[in-house]
Amino acid sequence: MPDDIRTVEELVDHYGKPKGHLAEKEKPKLSDHCRRFLELSPFCVLSTSAAGDGPADCSPRGDAPGFVHVIDDTTIAIPDRPGNRRTDTFHNIVENPEIAAMFMVPGLNEVMRLNGRARLTTEPALLEKMVANGKTPLAALVIDIRYVYFHCGKAIIRADLWNPDNHLQKGDFPTLGQINQDWYGVDKDEIDARLADDYANNLY
């Protein structure tokens, strides 16, 4: 298509270049502000991709604020709590350790972005530091930081993300059981009951 942007030169020509310090805002290690942000953050999104032309994946991670363990200024660890056992993120990491993460704090418009190389570990001493509700995580995702920086809040402001008046009421969107029934032909009531039990008894 003639209007597609296909080269870096076309991209720069269309958008221009970042101004001032924004062109070099990435930092190679955590600052005190970064550490404090991680202490406050209960949620992040991990982005990975398989090697070569493999598909990309985006996966949420969430827990009590401070669930991310800071090993040192260039290394963090994220506990792996019980999930659906697809392990898409970990399949990608085994093939391609490159990772990006975006951390959010409810009520703050700015987010923290981090890139690096990841590995999956079952090191007992590390896992013991991330016990929650008396449960030790099955593994931890360790990220060796390449760079980290803060991203402005325009997207969050445009989305009005933290406004409670925008929260959907239960019933305004189909349950996951209903979605699975429509997609896969399974029994929605069985799926919803299983999920309710899982949410109540198997978060950790």
Radius of gyration of CA atoms, rounded to a whole number: 20 Å
Q: Roughly what is the average pLDDT, rounded to an integer?
A: 93
The helix/strand series, from N terminus to C terminus, equals: HHEEEEHEEHEHHH
Q: Work out the helix count.
A: 7
Helix and strand composition category: alpha+beta
Characterization of this structure:
With 204 residues, the chain is of the alpha+beta class. It is built from seven helices and seven strands; from the N terminus they run ααββββαββαβααα. It has a seven-stranded antiparallel β-sheet, with helices on one face. 17% of the residues are buried.
For this entry, give a set of tags.
28% helix, alpha+beta, 7 helices, Pnp Oxidase, Chain A, globular, 27% strand, seven-stranded antiparallel β-sheet, 7 strands, single chain, 204 residues
